[in-house]
């Protein structure tokens, strides 16, 4: 099934969002006909249809791969050519937000971003905010009217932050397509998720064939096990998001030669669907909810430090992935030849503590995981361990691929929006690591309180004002030959992107 | 180094705790000469020296392997032959505790146990409570007096619960020897742990050679990395405990042919050392602190459900471990041949959610992980995924070994006893799964309050009374053709063992 869905999305991409040819059999899923939101623009494709104010680049003019790779910003910023140049200025570092006029982002979402201070030529962050309609796969195939008992399709709301590295191509591709993969994955689930009964164990073999009915569950639960494991609706949405990330990554792998999918990106994605907020994170961006002044963490960072044991286990089980250059053991610093025979602190894939071991020849290899904090690296190269892309990433001056150690799978956390009555000051804040490198959860909560209390609760511009304040606060001002914060510490020289999503208030669910 | 230490412990075992021959070189560690507590009795060995009231089996009479395998209880219970027979009675299920006369367990620790209701012929739980002295390895090797600047050895307090399965041999061996392995691992650390400076990066090549001095750190921290990772004293103790578990498991593997090390066991171990409590858990026993009526979880259970993704990843990376009989994919129940071609719910090693996949021929294999709750199994065989032993465990009616999927490594949690002033009602409760199957944290906290408040705070028998109440409460009474709790639910038919360790009060640190 995964392959089929990938083909459908790939078709959608290569056709530039135009409707695919009429399927020859009910087997073939249609990827576009029920989409209300604009289809994404595709690399090297003609312009997608315009008029999607909230789309990320989907209404952008067609660009050659070179132009695309050079610089683009989310369409919802509505930047003029002059604005684009301003946004690309490392010296001025002007904070960008959607214009205060015209159509707002869904839920009155706030957004702000700023380019780095010279770390890379262009801003490698990308962002996307969309409302995506999902119709049952079946209807588009048969063309027949829905049975009375079958439910309508549904919308999901979608926000994505993509923090690129080693080029902007992966982040841009993900910002244009990841929500489409999620949409594809959800098509099978349209009826199931709106049916109060537990999900059926089996579906008919053909997605889109009309025989699904929840009354049967198709196969009786009796078998060699005494009972059948219960699967929740929520876990189906989580599985759909997880598989969408994997398919997005596979698509990048397949199309990296045809299109300039350079580098990789962290992906932090929020899906609101049927009353629940799903926060999916693969990388070192972070999401928190600030509710009634309190912080609720909604993601964990995936770095060489937090994923050390996973990485070491893989190196231990598949030593061929380490070449002759790396050891899966960790040492507090690199072992030097003169230390052969001494006993040095180490830990392996099973240990959280440290012990001493006698240094042998192969311990002189470079450790798979080394360094601390922001300097921690896998194979001395990359500082994040989950994300999309990086299929071409090799160890410096070597042919050893790093991708096998990186995971494209997000961790998904769920927040039930119906379990709590939210006020207009309750927000979900998403930020790339440029924000979190120089601030923390409680400082962000303080800024939330300070900025939102300066605006009327029903003023929809307050959330963009908050996003701007967060980005400005993390960027600092250009004093003393560097961007500095009020406490004279260095501000973030990285790209910074922030979404502020209100969880209650007038803008919601609209 | 690990091999050397294992040899030392093996020697200790095979010599029955007698002092080893004078080492021929400073390389050979001595495992016994600085031990204050009694050396453990060894399988097939002559009786260990008597007089260790708190030892677990260490003062037990010599038994043939057959006798040992048949039945033994912790020595600190001081059971007479008649008492031993009573403790082995599945019908009566008399709760056993140390006698209220004579020498108490360290810290006035309370203990109680009861045999199962017929699940296995004998009680397969074992327990150990010891005070273990650790002297520097160096002294015992050189025999020379310590330099003035060098510190004295130290004691650690030790409690262990071992929940055996498929035989009692592994649990008994672990109860006799695991603390000796911990002692061995700590010998290198005697000076380091008592030195306020950070642990040295390197030690001289020979454990026991006299050149360790913390001033040098031997190698300068400058190298290709900008800084050297800081390693804490605490993490050295954790590493020592982790390696001790591994060495214990290796010893079981090596000696399983010579001695009757049948089955395997979960191990829940507490080490108190230099102000901190280390709780190490490998299996499905559980430890909680009840402090001022509040529950602080001190362990997590390791079961096919909690370790699903680790198990599936191993099966995915090493499919040869699955033979032709198992699939690493999980399904809500076993797939049936007639479901070929349908799409069924599944999840793989990367997913926490569920999705649908088309059933192919190899999905008809049995899932590596199946079932729910107490019925969850790895390879349809075993319900715990960490512990010691099980080296002979095979899939039923197959030669496929299960051990590669089991981990002997504990998760270690640390509690700093000096950070809080504890009252006599604050306790650490350890219980095998027989306790937790029928009760929960908050019910245990209620029982702690109820029982302890009925005794004077300085009455040292209150902790054993509490352990007895917990075991009685989980066992129930023999009504209605089964052991039943007051709410008429079934009581635990499993072996039940409980330690109650007071964290404050008169009995402490003595």
UniProtKB/TrEMBL annotation, chains A, B:
Identification of the protein by name: Protein phosphatase 1J
Domain named PPM-type phosphatase: residues: 108-503
Domain of life: Eukaryota
Region (Disordered): 1-107
UniProt feature, compositional bias: Low complexity: 50-64
Biased composition, class Polar residues, residue ranges: 27-36
Organism: Dipodomys ordii
CDD domains on file: PP2Cc
């Amino acid at each position: 099934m995964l392959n089929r869905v990938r083909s459908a999305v790939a078709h959608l991409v290569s056709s530039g969002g135009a409707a695919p040819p009429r399927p020859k059999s009910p087997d073939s899923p249609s990827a576009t006909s029920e989409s209300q939101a604009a289809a994404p623009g595709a690399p090297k494709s003609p312009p997608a249809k315009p008029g999607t104010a909230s789309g990320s680049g989907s209404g952008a003019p067609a660009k050659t791969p070179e132009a695309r790779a050079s610089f683009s910003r989310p369409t919802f910023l509505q930047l003029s050519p002059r604005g684009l140049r301003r946004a690309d200025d490392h010296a001025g570092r002007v904070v960008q937000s959607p214009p205060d006029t015209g159509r707002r982002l869904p839920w009155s979402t706030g957004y702000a971003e700023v380019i780095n201070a010279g770390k890379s030529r262009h801003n490698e962050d990308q962002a996307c905010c969309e409302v995506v309609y999902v119709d049952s796969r079946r209807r588009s195939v048969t063309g027949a009217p829905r049975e009375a008992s079958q439910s309508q399709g549904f919308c999901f709301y979608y926000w994505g932050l993509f923090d690129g590295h080693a080029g902007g191509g992966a982040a841009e591709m993900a910002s244009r397509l990841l929500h489409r993969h999620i949409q594809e994955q959800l098509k099978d689930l349209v009826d199931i998720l709106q049916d109060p009964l537990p999900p059926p164990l089996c579906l008919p073999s053909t997605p889109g064939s009309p025989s699904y009915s929840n009354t049967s569950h198709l196969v009786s639960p009796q078998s060699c096990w005494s009972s059948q494991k219960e699967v929740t609706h929520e876990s189906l949405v989580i599985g759909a998001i997880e598989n969408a990330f994997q398919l997005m990554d596979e698509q990048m792998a397949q199309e990296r030669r045809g299109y300039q999918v350079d580098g990789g990106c962290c992906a932090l994605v929020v899906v609101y669907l049927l009353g629940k907020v799903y926060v999916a994170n693969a990388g070192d961006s972070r999401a928190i909810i600030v509710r009634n002044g309190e912080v609720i963490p909604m993601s964990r960072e995936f770095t060489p430090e937090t994923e050390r044991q996973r990485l070491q286990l893989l190196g231990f089980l598949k030593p061929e992935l380490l070449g002759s250059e790396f050891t899966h053991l960790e040492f507090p610093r690199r072992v030097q030849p003169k230390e052969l025979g001494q006993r040095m602190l180490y830990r392996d894939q099973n240990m959280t503590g440290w012990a001493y071991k006698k240094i042998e020849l192969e311990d002189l290899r470079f450790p798979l995981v080394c360094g601390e904090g922001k300097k921690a690296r896998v194979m001395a190269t990359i500082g994040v361990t989950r994300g999309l892309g990086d299929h071409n990433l090799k160890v410096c001056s070597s042919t050893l691929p790093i991708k096998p150690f990186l995971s494209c799978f997000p961790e998904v956390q769920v927040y039930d929006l119906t379990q709590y009555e939210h006020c207009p000051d309750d927000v979900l804040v998403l930020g790339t690591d440029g924000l979190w490198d120089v601030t923390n959860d409680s400082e962000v909560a303080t800024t939330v309180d300070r900025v939102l209390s300066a605006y009327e609760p029903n003023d929809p511009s307050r959330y963009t004002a908050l996003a701007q304040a967060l980005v400005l606060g993390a960027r600092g001002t250009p004093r003393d030959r560097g961007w500095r914060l009020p406490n004279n510490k260095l501000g973030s020289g990285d790209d910074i992107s922030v979404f502020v999503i209100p969880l209650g208030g007038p803008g919601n669910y609209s």
